[in-house]
Amino acid sequence: KAGVTQTPRYLIKTRGQQVTLSCSPISGHRSVSWYQQTPGQGLQFLFEYFSETQRNKGNFPGRFSGRQFSNSRSEMNVSTLELGDSALYLCASSLGAVLGRDSPLHFGNGTRLTVT
Amino acid sequence: SQQGEEDPQALSIQEGENATMNCSYKTSINNLQWYRQNSGRGLVHLILIRSNEREKHSGRLRVTLDTSKKSSSLLITASRAADTASYFCASGKAGSYQLTFGKGTKLSVIP
After folding, report:
1. What is the rounded average pLDDT of the residues B4-13?
2. Do residues A38 and A46 touch, judged by C-beta distance below 8 A?
3. Dihedral, CA atoms, B107, A95, B53, B32, nearest 10 degrees?
4. Rounded distance, CA A47 to CA A55, Å?
5. Is A83 in a helix, a strand, or coil?
6. Which of B44, B102, B42, B95 minimizes the C-alpha distance to B72?
7. Are A32 and A96 in contact (CB under 8 A)?
8. Residue A97 has what pLDDT?
């Protein structure tokens, strides 16, 4: 089985621009979560989708949004980029219907976003 | 705020020694999981322990869970240079759809 695929791998954007990151989960996985990883804050939960519905959202401003398509692929969007948005954005997919309940996450290798 | 907090933040040992990492969390959980991350890569799931379990083994890994103290430990026995990575605990909060990660322990195994 192919693993979780995130594209692009690296991205450089300018302050004020917007960006869209893509995630293809493992085949059969219906839950997709997004995390932001920075040296200072560690791994911060952004949101989780299951069957096209956002079930949980982390404590991030409205500039961060996401969606999931009927084939379980997911995208996240960050508008009006700020320097502090520079981070590794990780997507993870899961088989279980209840995240965290006997259902480990399978992570992609992330998208490294640099905002200048 | 981070629900899980690992201790120590960094650990350096010789190959062949055992490595122990600890994790604390704050609320009731369904399970606790441990992940490994090699530099700049995604996280890899290592082991999951349910809230009604106290100890679990997988190869050279041993995880314990003490729900009364809201803590867990990960023991890696007979460490190898390839074990060099950051290790994160993640707690699955009861009634929630998210995993909350700690800030990790950076393990260096010296050949």
Report:
1. 87
2. no
3. 40
4. 8
5. helix
6. B102
7. no
8. 62
Give the distance from residue B15's alpha carbon to the nearest chain A alpha carbon, in angstroms: 27
Q: Which are the contacts of B47, defined by CB distance < 8 A and separation ≥ 6?
A: B33, B34, B56, B58, B61, B63, B74
Cα(A38)–Cα(B37) distance, integer angstroms: 13
Among residues B76, B72, B79, B88, the alpha carbon closest in space to that of B110 is found at B79
pLDDT digits (tens, 9 = 90+) for A11-41: 999 999 999 999 999 999 999 999 999 998 8
Structure tokens at A98: 């209840």
Burial A64-77 (b: 16+ CB within 10 A, else e): bbbebeeebbbbbe
Mean per-residue pLDDT of chain A: 92
> How far off is chain A from B60, nearest CA to CA, in Å?
19
Residue among A58, A101, A107 whose CB faces B42 most closely = A107
Is the Cα dihedral B64, B71, B67, A102 positive or negative?
negative
Q: Which residues of A6-43 are buried (b: 16+ CB within 10 A; e: fewer)?
A: beeeeeebeeeeebebebbbbeebbbbbbbbbeeeebb
Better-scored residue on pLDDT, B5 or A80: A80
